[in-house]
Each structure stands twice: as structure tokens, then as C-alpha cells.
Amino acid sequence: MLTQEAEPRFSRAHKVLGLTAIATMLVSLDTSIVVVAERTIAEDLGNPNWMPWVFSGYSIAYAAGLLTAGRFADVNGRKRSFMRGLALFSIGSVLCGLAPTTHLLVLARLIQAIGGAQLTPASIALVLPEFPAEKRTVAIGVWGAVGGLAAAAGPSLGGILLDWLNWRWLFFINVPFCIFTLLIGRTLLHESKDPNATKDVDLIGTAFGFPGVALVTLAITQSTEWGYFDNRTIGSFLIGLALLALFVQRCRTVTNPLLDLKLFKLPFVVAANISGLFFSIGFLGMWLLNTQWIQVIWGYSPARSGLATAPGPIMAALFAAPMGRLAVRWGHAKVLMVGSVLMSVGTFMLTVTMTPTPDYVRDYLPLMIITGIGVGCSMSTLSSAANAFLPPAKFAMGSALNTTARQVGSALGAALAASLATPAIKNAIQALTTKQPITEAMVSSYDNAWYLMSGIYLFAGLIMLTLFRKPTDEQMAAANDVTFVD
């Protein structure tokens, strides 16, 4: 075993951060990049009824696989899990690009998602040992921001690739990045794991946890299409909750649980995960609402709408690292509260400025800048608050828990946005079909959706401000007790 020596490895730590961020970027990008191509793919492959599963199938499988993958990484080695997950994600990407039918495309997306679920918790677990605990906030902030920004930028890149090439390049674009990361990762990355874990992962817990998360996410994702009170929605949700209850009970009694419930005794873990869930509801909800508005009501093409929204991700990227440093000085809760206020104000003001008559510079651009700065304050701070001070044996497990909470939140945000905006979208499409002007009354339901997302942001900030507590000296010492495996 090699004990961590922070200074000699500090320069290589940034290389590890950059390399793992590439993989995280690809996984996050593929959660959203296909949204703009749904109609094009359906026209090419047929079976349009299966097209929603190209998006939701990926999200469901990704969310369901995270907790299991996190424990596997801690037990069997984070580098090994990262490399295997990345290889599987790369294979899935190739199969997506070559898919001759919609059914095979959905299957390939599931392979992609399982690979993504395997590499994501392992990637942050590889970054954490490279930095001393007091420097992890900035590092994780960058790592988390890259993933969030990639998801936000997905439609922009997807629209450009769709206009310039064709939909298959939405998936082929991953391959060179995967190959580069695999080649460099073989020599750059150090192996680490939970030194106290046995080789046996709790398969019974997996049998409860994996389908439990999958069914709850399925119910949320399909609630708009099936209906909130449809038997399929209610049945999936209740069975999923029952399985998750059995999963929690199993984790309480087994020696080496899939999820160590002692993590919930750490205030920073509880605060960051609850706040992260609500933040993800607002973030994905707002992003989908804005994208639908400028494409359907303003008539922007996918590529143009992506470029119109780009200032938001750009501002978030510029502010992510500085906000991480500020979180060390001010405290994570205060920085997140600033971000929540900015996003809440920016989203609320959309109800005031946005009209059916396009005026991008006056009505939309300033609010993209405000909300982008808010994302820069929030995204990085949430990731670092949840992961920076974890005990080393639980690096991947803790990351998996945080990512699962945020994926479930994203599914909720997408479902809420779709259900609340549907009346406005239908009215706008009907008006366009009949060549009638779109009036503000036709799209008034959009205001209710933006009001809700604005309130959710504030709630996420208040949760963090109320529940977050700095780690104790003992917890900081334990977080720095890192070992590598030769």
C-alpha cells in the first residue's frame, strides 16, 4: 500500500481531474444530446412510438445502475470500474451510431447508460484521493460543473451536428474521446478501493436497489405520457418504493451493504443530497421549458436555439472554479444560496420578459447570463459539498448516492416541465397550423411552470442553508486518510 503524499502528486492531480472530467462530460452529454434529433431519427428508422425510450431508457438505466456501480467500484477498484465502464460506454456509442432500427437503438442506449453508471462514481472516486480534503472543493466543483454544463450544452451540440452531418454523429462523436481517455488512463490513473471491504458485493441488495430505483424513475419519467393516476404509473411507483424499502432494510442488516446508511449521519451529505435533488428538478425543468419556448413559440431551429442558450453554460463554466474557491472561504451553503437566488430571479423574470414576439437580446440573453452565473455558483458547490469530505472508503458510494438523487430530480423536473407546458405548446402548434398569431393568453401556462421552477430553486438553497454543517476536525482527518493500491 502507498500512503498519500499530496505535494509530489499535485501536478498530476489536475491531469487526473481533466481525464475523468472528459468521461463525465460524455455521459452527461448523452442524457440530452438526442432530444433535438427525436423527429429526425423517427423519420429515418421508423417506429416513432419507441422514440421516447431513446431518451428515457438511458435516464432510467443510468439512475438505476449508480448505487450498485458505486459499491462495485469501492470493492473491486475505482480505476478498474472506470476503465470498464468507459469501454462499455464506447461500445454502446458505436452500436447507437450503427443501429438499423429504433428497437436496437434503444438497446444500445441501455448499454451506454450501464457503462455511464459504472464510470461516473468511479471517476469522482479517482479524483478525490489526488487532492487533500481542503483542496477538493474546487476540484470537485470543476468536475461537477463539466457534467452539468455538458447536459445543458447537449441540445446545442446536437443541433449543430444534426445540421452539418446526421443524427448518427450524435453518438460517433463520443468514440475518439473514449479511446483517448482509455489510452491515457491506463498509465495515468492509480488504483484505489475500500481496504476493509470483502470481495463479495451484496447481490440481494442489488436485486432490491437496482429495480427499485428503475421503477421509481420509470414512473416519474412516463407520468406525463401515461398520466399521473394511470395504473402503470401508480403501480411502478409503489412497487419501486416497496423494493427501495426492502433495500434500506437490507442495508441496515448486512455486514457490507450496497449503501452504508451511516453516510446519512453526516450533515453535509444529507444537506447536499436533498438540496441537489430539488436543484436538479428546477435546473432540468427550466432548461426544457426554455428550449421548448424558443423552438416552438419563437420558431428557432435546434442549432439556433442551442446557440441562443449557450451564454448560460459559458457563464457557468467561467464562474464554477471561482465559486468553488469562494465556498471554501464563505461556506458551501452561503454560495449555494447566492446561486439559488440568482437562478430564482432569472427564472421568475422570464415570466415578465418573454412574449410570443421574439426579442432575444432584450428578453432572453440577460436572463441566460444571470441564470448561468447562478448555475456556476450552484452546480459546483453541490458536488463538492456532497463529496469533498467523504471518508475515503466511501468515495464511490457517496458519489453514486449524490448522482442518483440528482438523476431522480432531473426526471421529476422533466416530467413537471412537460406536464405544465403542454397546454401552451398545444395552443402554439394549433395557432401555427391555422396560421393564427400566438397570443400571450395561449401560452399563459408557461408562467405557472416558470413560477414553480423559481420557487424550487429558492427551496433548494434554503435546505442547504438550514441543514449543511461543516465537517468536524475528526471528519476532515478521516477524509485525508487516503491509500493507493500498488
Could you please describe the fold and organization of this structure?
By secondary structure, this protein is mostly helical. The chain has one domain: MFS general substrate transporter like domains (Growth Hormone, Chain: A), CATH 1.20.1250.20. The chain has helices spanning 10-32, 38-45, 51-76, 78-98, 102-127, 136-164, 169-172, 174-188, 203-226, 231-253, 267-297, 302-309, 311-330, 332-353, 360-387, 395-433, 445-467, 473-479; strands spanning 2-3, 483-484.
Level of helix content? over 70%
Distance between the termini: 6 Å
Beta-strand fraction estimate: under 5%
Mean pLDDT: 81
Notable features of this structure?
two-stranded antiparallel sheet; mainly alpha; Growth Hormone, Chain: A; 486 residues; 18 helices; disordered N terminus; 1% strand
Compact description:
By secondary structure, the protein is an all-alpha fold. The protein is 78% helix and 1% strand.
Architecture blueprint of SSEs:
Layout: E1 2-3, H1 10-32, H2 38-45, H3 51-76, H4 78-98, H5 102-127, H6 136-164, H7 169-172, H8 174-188, H9 203-226, H10 231-253, H11 267-297, H12 302-309, H13 311-330, H14 332-353, H15 360-387, H16 395-433, H17 445-467, H18 473-479, E2 483-484
Antiparallel strand pairs: 1-2
Helix pairs in contact: 1-5, 1-6, 1-8, 3-4, 3-5, 3-9, 3-16, 4-5, 4-8, 5-16, 6-12, 6-13, 6-15, 9-10, 9-16, 11-12, 11-15, 11-16, 11-17, 13-14, 13-15, 14-15, 14-17, 16-17
